[in-house]
């Protein structure tokens, strides 16, 4: 307040000071408002753990006002079907992201580009069919990745390149039929791999991944059951329990393919043989090269059922042969004993039937009596 007798200079000086204080107050208020984290509408925020929980709200888009300092963002059990590439652009401090139980079918290759501190990513129970190989390029600190219950039919090579910190990976309940060993070799610190409930085809395409699984189990990694769906002979059997001898035909196919590539290309074979040219009169017909398609032998994988049948039949035949040998030996022993007994009886009867001296003595006795 100014005194009644104050001069105009004092009034101007006080007005200027009041204006400066007002500006400072406004700047402080604006800074305080920006410093305080705002919570998105209907979401639950924890200022201590820096967690934003927007799960189960029926959201179709990611809230745009998520605080930049958020470390945990929960968006599970919503109706998210498509996400723009800038959905998480300002969340460089984010460490845990949960997008489970949504309707996501495709993810932009740069959607996680700013999440350089991400350690856990949950994408469980969505409709994701394909993944871009650069999707996780900037998530070098990722430790836990869940891609289970989706529609993945294959994994692009290079998807896990740079994920040296990854500890657990879940690929359960997808449409995977085979996997490439080179895709998993960068995961040097992986401890848990879940690949069950997939329609695995245990053929030559899965042979190299079987080698990697054996190495992974040998170094202490945990792996759930990888049950074969095809071929029928191996249906329901764990891939790790299938002996490597079942894949010997794969090497034969590779050798034949490599040797076939060195052959000199000839005329294309056709199913219909061309009509032979009419020979000129007085000239011998020349043999024409055959253009018929050669019959290629079709290699089939070894059948477990046939192998077991062969073993059973061989065992039965060996058993029958052994029984026949025992019967023959018993018959020989019985025959030998009977013949020995017969010869003993025959020797006992010889003095009575064929001895001439005995007959001469009998005649002497008869003549003396006469």
UniProtKB/TrEMBL annotation:
Identify the residues that the record assigns to the LRRNT domain, covering every copy.
38-72
- Superkingdom of the source? Eukaryota
Cross-referenced Gene3D superfamilies: Ribonuclease Inhibitor
Q: State the Gene Ontology BP annotations.
A: positive regulation of synapse assembly
Identify its membrane topology class: Single-pass type I membrane protein
Where does it mainly reside? membrane
Q: Which GO terms describe its cellular component?
A: plasma membrane
- Annotated LRRCT domain ranges read 198-251
Q: Which PROSITE patterns match?
A: LRR
Recorded hits in SUPFAM superfamilies, A to Z, give: L domain-like
Q: One Pfam annotation, family name?
A: LRR_8
Provide the alphabetized UniProt keywords: Glycoprotein, Leucine-rich repeat, Membrane, Repeat, Signal, Transmembrane, Transmembrane helix
Task: Fetch the SMART domains from UniProt.
Answer: LRR_TYP, LRRCT, LRRNT
Which cell locations does it reside in? Membrane
Return the InterPro entries for the record.
Cys-rich_flank_reg_C, Leu-rich_rpt, Leu-rich_rpt_typical-subtyp, LRR_dom_sf, LRR_TM_domain-containing, LRRNT
Q: Which residues cross the membrane?
A: 307-340
Give the region (Disordered) as residue ranges.
Answer: 261-300, 351-370
This one is known as: Leucine-rich repeat and transmembrane domain-containing protein 2
Q: Which organism is the protein's source? A: Mandrillus leucophaeus (Drill)
